[in-house]
Design brief:
Elements (H helix, E strand, L loop, with lengths): L1 E5 L5 E5 L11 E3 L26 E3 L7 H4 L6 E3 L2 E3 L18 E5 L31 E6 L5 E4 L4 E3 L5 E11 L4 E10 L12 H4 E3 L15 E3 L30 E4 L13 H4 L3 E3 L10 E5 L5 E6 L11 E3 L18 E2 L18 E5 L1
Length: 368
């Protein structure tokens, strides 16, 4: 094996020279190689050969012996890690530029073994740069990065409006006086209104508790907790929205309809118990040329489905901003277009909504 170091100006020095005459008299292993496979068979030069354990070797002007002459005549063994002399004089690198591409060149003379370089590097004498310049860049500009949730913006402040609970990354970028840019991302987590962390009252504001009391051993005391204002407890509306999406007959067929998911998190109670009281409305904002080829259903995570409408009349944008509610009195089946801006009952009637009692979140599906 031959190992050579080449500097950016293409000058070179041989660190370890291949000696044909001593190849069979003093076999030195570099590191601790894998010489046999799991069956005990010798490993030849193949792509499946696994690396062994590397050892750290250094060539320096302070090295006293080369790889070969340090342990000449000792037979077959693994070369110990340490600092060694190069086979050629390292002064051959005098005049090389420090900056640029340095190259380690390894020539494997035999196909009966493999070799691995686990890592290598150069250490220059610290006297080469006695006065290292130190400086601190000054920040000259900075700004927040807008995203789809931004409602108002300046470089120093930004307002986001979330359509539903969740999280997003907000990025802030600065530029220094050298023209270099740096950025950091901040995670903004939005909790649902029903989360305990969003409570707007404390236990002390809700209950009147028993004052401290002192009793003798064997005595008793009556402990009472009285609700101060029952009206402090209230139900909170919970709504979620989805982003815009485009579909067609090719992507929303009868066999494989387009599906838009709305995931509700941290709602309490987690399941619907009374559809009439707990689902206020399901609203759609659909734009299509011909409404009569549309079938839209509402589906629960367990697969229960409620058809909102099927092949109703109308053309153009008559389905924009329309809603369905279990409380609605106007049935979509007998209504006439345009439907935009109105709230309807499903064609099957109010009782059909009861299929969702006991169900959690919903999915909107459509085919065109």
């Amino acid at each position: 094996m031959e190992i050579k170091l080449v500097c950016p100006s293409r000058k070179s020095v041989v660190l370890h020279k291949y000696d044909f005459n001593t190849r069979n008299t003093n076999e030195i292993l570099i590191g601790i190689p894998n010489e046999t496979d799991a069956t005990g068979a010798a490993i030849n030069d193949s792509a499946s050969n696994k690396p062994g354990r590397g050892l750290r070797y250094t060539w320096a002007t302070s090295g006293r012996n080369t790889w070969r002459n340090r342990f000449a005549g000792q037979g077959r063994f693994s070369l110990p890690s340490g600092t060694y002399a190069a086979d050629e004089n390292l002064n051959q690198l005098v005049g090389c530029p420090l900056n640029g591409e340095w190259t380690m060149v390894v020539k494997d003379q035999f196909a009966s073994d493999n070799g691995w370089i686990f890592g290598w590097g150069l250490n220059f004498d610290k006297n080469l740069y006695p006065n290292i310049e130190k400086f601190t860049p000054q920040i000259v500009d900075g700004a927040w990065e807008r995203n789809s949730l931004t409602t108002s913006y300046t470089k120093d402040s930004m307002t986001l409006k979330f359509k539903s609970p969740g999280s997003t990354f907000v990025r802030y970028t600065v530029k220094d006086d050298f023209g270099c840019s740096y950025d950091t991302a901040i995670t903004v987590n939005v909790l649902p209104l029903v989360s305990a962390a969003c409570a707007m009252c404390s236990i002390d504001s809700l209950f009147r508790t028993t004052p401290d009391a002192t009793i003798c051993f064997g005595g008793s005391v009556q402990l009472n907790k009285e609700l101060i204002n029952p009206t402090n407890f209230r139900s909170l509306p919970y709504s979620v929205e989805n982003i815009n999406a485009r579909f067609s007959a090719a992507t929303a067929s009868t066999a494989a309809p387009y599906v838009s998911n709305l995931t509700v998190t941290s709602a309490s109670p987690p399941n619907i118990t009374n559809v009439l009281n707990e689902i206020d409305s399901v609203c759609l904002d659909l734009g299509t040329l011909i409404e009569s080829d549309m079938v839209v259903t509402l589906q629960s995570p367990t697969g229960k489905q409620l058809e909102l409408f099927s092949e109703i009349g109308g053309v153009g944008n008559s389905l924009r901003r329309m809603c369905f509610s279990p409380k609605a009195t106007q049935n979509i089946g007998v209504a006439t277009p345009p439907y935009a801006g109105n709230t309807y009952q499903v064609e099957a009637g109010a009782a059909a909504w009861n299929i969702f009692n006991g169900e959690p979140t919903m999915v909107i599906g459509s085919c065109a």
